[in-house]
Amino acid sequence: MSQTHSAKPFQSVFNDSVVIDASTPSQKRALSYATTIEMLFNQVMNSKMPADRIIGQYFREHKKHGSKDRRVIRESLFGLFRWWGWLSQLQGEQPHVTWFRQLSACAALEQHAWQDITQAWNTLATWPTTEAHPTNCDSINDKLALFMSLSGLTACQISDLLPSWFWQTCPVVPADKLAVVEAMTSRPPIWARVQSIKTSAAIAQLNKAGVDAIASQYFADAISLGHKSINLNEIDTYKQGHLEIQDLASQVIGQICQPQADQTWWDACSGAGGKTLQLRSLMLQQNTQSVGTITASDIRNKPLEELNKRAKRAGFNNISVAPWKSDALPVNAGTFDGVLVDAPCSCTGTWRRNPDMRWLDDASALTDKPALQLDILARSAAAVKSGGQLVYATCSLSPSENEHVVEAFLAQTNEFELVPVTHPFTGESCNMLTIWPQLADSDGMFVAKMRRK
Q1: 265 bridge partner residues
Q2: DSSP state for residue 55 in the 8-state scheme
Q3: Which amino acids does the record list as binding S-adenosyl-L-methionine (predicted)?
Q4: Are 256 and 447 in contact (CB under 8 A)?
Q5: CB within 8 A of 404, min separation 6: which ones?
Q6: Which of 137, 179, 327, 421 sits 20 to 30 Å CA-CA off 289?
Q7: Side-chain half-sphere CA neighbours of 445 within 13 A
Q8: What secondary structure letter does DSSP report for 187?
Q9: What is the C-alpha separation between 390 and 35, in angstroms, rounded?
Q10: From CA 431, how far away is CA 99, in angstroms rounded?
């Protein structure tokens, strides 16, 4: 990780040697927010724990914050990580000035609505120039122009917004580079999947409940819920088991699996079971009396308990769990029509939702996974029956975790062959499929489909 992206990017903003006058209520709130956001930012960078976990714990411990407070703190924190490749280059006469410049620039780039707070940060930032700055801030090029105008820096590049090791390990076609950065610095909508009822009925129910739900053009059961925060526990459609939150790129995997109504499937790395539920839903869409079965496995018991709760809420039968307890298969070999291996990975494809991870991780997040991924894939393949399918997936954008793992697996066995798949967003036929975030406003994902000969 470069020096500008070090784990301790600034010192404490407010201490005995720094006295900042706050003469208005807005300035007092702005100072309070700045102190809290700095504390959370440093905690994430120093502990290398996910930002959503850190901020979730903070809000649970500090019930005093109202909805506006929570929004300002949360969106400012994640915005800082989103633009840290530029913000980390800012300098001020003193550490607290640097911090206010980072907050001020972040608010401008994110176009935050809380103008009173933003104006107070602008004042405290004491920018080197008072000239008018660009107001058009729609494209990534516009945002770069705005940032350079604010900061006076001239060497910033769009590629700075992702760490250098990303460009080295996740090759991007030059023509797509701008679109990739544009996607990675924007927030995708909340994608969901409808089950057991018609999509049109679910959308009507959600719209009535005040949720901006619209249908996806790609999958009949996929819907976008917009960008607003949603309390799912207040949504009847969710409580009745008719709605599951699942990113559109993640939904591609189940669509590639194409489980038939009477088949047996094994989700070998199920986690909390999002794809297990999708597989079962796809079976039931073909036949409401489907006799197909799905077994879900994970090395952790807690996610499997969560899967059982979600399956019960959905009213889905024929789903069972079989925890991995050792290196031995937790299921019978050679008995499944399909096996899905959604392998643990670097998660570079989820950086839109987790912008902190691009600065917490380094290249080792990629290099320490392929051996494990190949081992899991090879072990799980033993469960596929003759003529059955083996699907390998990750939420990584790196060939080292994707194509190279599949190629290594096929090189060590002559029992499997690749099955060409159709890219759901472009219609192209390909042997292995990478979903890039800019294609359909989603996360990134990889999937390859094989068949036992």
Answers
A1: 294, 338
A2: H
A3: 298, 342
A4: yes
A5: 370
A6: 421
A7: 24
A8: P
A9: 51
A10: 48
Please count the CA atoms within 13 angstroms of the CA of 135 that sit on its side-chain side.
Answer: 1
Bridge partners (DSSP) of residue 336 are: 384
Q: Which helix (H) or strand (E) holds 161?
A: none
Contacts 24+ apart (CB under 8 A), 48-54: 48/7, 48/360, 50/354, 50/356, 50/357, 50/360, 51/77, 51/78, 51/81, 51/354, 51/355, 51/356, 52/354
Give me the sign of the Cα torsion angle 160, 162, 164, 169.
negative
138 is in an annotated binding site: no
247 is in an annotated binding site: no
Residue 3 pLDDT > 70: no
Predicted local confidence at residue 28, as pLDDT: 86
What does R_g of the chain's alpha carbons equal in angstroms? 24
Residue 290 pLDDT exceeds 90: yes
* pLDDT tens digit sequence for 292-334: 999 999 999 999 999 999 999 999 999 999 999 999 999 999 9
Amino acid at 10: F
Q: DSSP letters along 361-380, please?
A: --THHHHTSHHHHHHHHHHH
Give the active site residues.
Answer: 395
Domain at 247-452: CATH architecture: 3-Layer(aba) Sandwich (3.40)
Domain boundaries, the chain: 3-159, 247-452
Whether 116 has a pLDDT exceeding 70, the answer reads yes
Tens-digit pLDDT profile for residues 21-61: 666 788 889 999 999 999 999 999 999 999 999 999 999 99
